[in-house]
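Note to self: keep these together.
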Amino acid sequence: MATYTSAIGPYRPTPAPNRPANPPRIPTSPNSQVNFHTPVQKEAIHEQKKKYLTAKYGAQQMNLIRKRLKVEDWIDDELRILYNCEDDADTYDCEIDLDDVLDLDTERERWQYIWEKVCNAPQQRDVTERFIEDLLQKAKTL
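Structure:
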């Protein structure tokens, strides 16, 4: 066994207690084996995962998605104005689901739905009604 000398003094490592130098082998059965993925299998798994991680849209579909996002961003900005939010940390107590608006049949039902959502806004009634009219116009473009 080797002895090491340091500034503190000699050091002699001690062997691990009651451990044999060569541990016994565990018997294996003929069916126990380790399977490593071959490059072909790895590529197949990668392709399978890739399908679920990315979605490709055509140009027309992407334009519709962008248009929808613009309307939703506009709604968020206008609601911040209606509820006097001064910065991004401020929140408002109103959630307008654009899908719900579009699912309603008549213009009057849509107007009523939006009004019920924003009627407690601290802005004047004419500002709130102008928001509703603008939202209904934008919803028609979707």
